[in-house]
Amino acid sequence: MSPPRVFEGKLAIITGASRSFGAALATHFASRGANVVINYATSSSDKIAAELANHLSTTYNITALPVRADLLDPSAPATIVNAAKAVFTNPTATPSFQIDILINNAAVVNAQPIQELDVELWDQTFNINCKAPALLIKAAFPYLPHDRSGRIVNISSATTTWGLIQQTSYAGTKGAIEAMTRVWARELAERATVNSVSPGPMDTGLLNGLPEAPKQALRMYNALIPLAKERPGVDSEETLRLADEIGGRPGTLEEVAGIVGIACLPESGWMTGNQLGASGGGAFVR
């Protein structure tokens, strides 16, 4: 049974959307009627982004636009918005172009002990995880709705509260995006709600090959998370394998994308400046 098309005719811009969780986000919104801009960073993703856009367009009768723009480049946000404007402008509509939904998903993830902190990697992590979302919202600002119906979601991380080792730059930048979310919720109150979603471990492939020290920490945390218990006969074999390694099952991409979608529903208009957990009850880990 197809999901209801609750985002029919809306335009969603999603960064880091050609694969993994970003592709799950694009699929979630497209399957519910939204036109989607699939941002990605490098030419190596040209083919997969084009294939995803074609699949979403034909499967869900929407328009999906792949846009290559590396968010390490400060001009990338304007490139994304201008590409969307070129395709989705409707001269007969008022307004002729509007960005209804903006998902800041692109991120750099790394693990380094503090004594080995690499300055270049630190700068790259900050630029993608913090500066790029700010610049993209700046570029999108002229095209946000004027009736509070816009929806902006910044993807954060449960690492902001869990204190996982070797996560100085990643957890630090995700904590910063949560702080900026609250600022933007006030600044953009008449245009859009602004919330963050904090996933716990997800089945993205990043858990494969994780060093033993972070795995040990995840085992400790997963013991406290209500929904982390694996379900033989329900969960996939890969999920069960990961659960055995990290002491509990990770969230599926679709589960977490669904929570992002909730924050973008028309009915979510009385919620802004919030941090939404998407970790199976990871808020118990304090």
Automatic annotation (TrEMBL):
Family: Belongs to the short-chain dehydrogenases/reductases (SDR) family.
Native species: Alternaria arborescens
Protein's name according to its UniProt entry: Ketoreductase domain-containing protein
Keyword terms: NADP, Oxidoreductase
Residue ranges occupied by any Ketoreductase domain in the UniProt entry: 10-205
Pfam families per UniProt: adh_short
GO biological process per UniProt: fatty acid biosynthetic process
GO molecular function, a single term: quinone binding
